Amino acid sequence: MECLKMKYEANVETGELIIRELTAEEIAQDEIDRKMATDRAVIDEQKREAKDAAKAKLEALGLSLDDLKALGLG
Amino acid sequence: MANTTNFGWETPDDTDLVKDGAAAIRTLGNSIDTSLVDLKGGTTGQVLSKTTNTDMDFTWTTPNVGDITEVQAGTGISVASGTGPIPVITNTVATAFDAAGDLVYGTGADTFTKLAVGTAGQVLSVNSGATAPEWKTISSGGYTLLSTVNASAATSVSFTSISGSYKHLFLTWADAGSDSSATYWSIRINNDSNSNRHQFRGWRVTSDPTAIAGINDRSTLLGNSTTSAPIGPVEGSGSTTSYNGYGGMWFYNYADTSDQKHGFWQAMTGNANNGQFEANMVNWLYNQTTAITQIDFVRSSTQTITGTFRLYGVS
Q1: In-domain check, residue B73
Q2: What is the ipTM metric for this complex?
C-alpha cells in the first residue's frame, strides 16, 4: 500500500516551504501521469519485442542486419 | 512758556489766562503747520523721501522704474519679508540637500525630490518604471540561490511563484534517489499537462560501452512523455544499495514571452546493484511562449523521491 502522497512546495517568491498532502486534483493528475507512463512503457516494450522477434527471424534465415542494409532495406 | 516734548511747539502754561487762549492756539497751529509743510502735496504713486537729516525735512518723489518695492517667490525660491525692510531669499532646491551624497531630481514640471546617497559600490540606474533614478547594486552575473528543498519520500517537488527577475534558471539535484527502479521523473513546466507541449531528445551513456543510445530507444529506463520532460531515473534500485543521482538543468530565457522555452540537463547516476553508471545529456523544449513561473517534478510510477533540490536565478 502506497504511503501518503506528500508534496514539497517551495514558494520562491516568499521563501516558504510547504509540505502537504496532494490535493484531489493533484492526485488525479498523478494517476493520469502514471497511467500514461505505464502505457508508453508497454508500447515501447512491445516495439522492442517485435524488433527482437524480427531479428530472430532474420537470423533463422541466415540473414543479418548488414544483409538488409545491403538490400537497401535497413 | 511750555513746549511739546518732540518738536518743541509752544503751548500755554497752566497759569495763563483764558483770554490769551486764542493766541496760544494760533501759535501752536502755526508751529504744526510749519513743521508738516513738507507732507503737503505729492501725487499718486509718489513716496516720501528724506531731503536732509533735519527733522521733518521731506520731499515727495516718484520711484524710478525698476526700483524694488517687493520680492515674491518664484519656482525653487522662497521669500520671507518680501516687502522689506530686508527680504530673505532662500533657494529651496539647495535646502533639499540634507546630507553628503544627496541628489535632487525632478518629479515633474517644476517639482523635485531628494535621493539619498546609496551604499558602497552601488550605481545610479533608472527604476523599473523608467520614472526616476535609483541606486542599484551591480549584478555580479552570478547565481542567486532562490530556493532549496530537502525532500524525503516526496511524491512531488514543486517550485512555485518564480519571478522573472533573472535571465536564466538553473535547477540542481544532489544525492537524489528514488525508491523504485525502472521508473523515471519528469519536469513539468507551469503545471501544464496538455499533450505534446514538452519534448526532449538526448543521449544516455552507460558504463557498458555498447549501451550508447538515443533516449527514445531506452524509454523504459529514461522515460518517455509528451506532457512533461523526463529527466531519467534520478536513480534508484530502492535504497541504500544504489547510488543517488546528481544533475543540473538549465531553463534558458525563462521569463521571455516571445520564444518557446528550452534548456538542457545533464546528470550522473549509478547503481551499485549492477555496477553500472550512466550519464544523461538531454535537450528539452516546452513549446509555449509563456514565462516559466512554476516547475514540478512528476513521477512515472508510485516511486517517491528523496534528495536536495536547489533552484538558482542566473543574472
Answers
A1: no
A2: 0.71
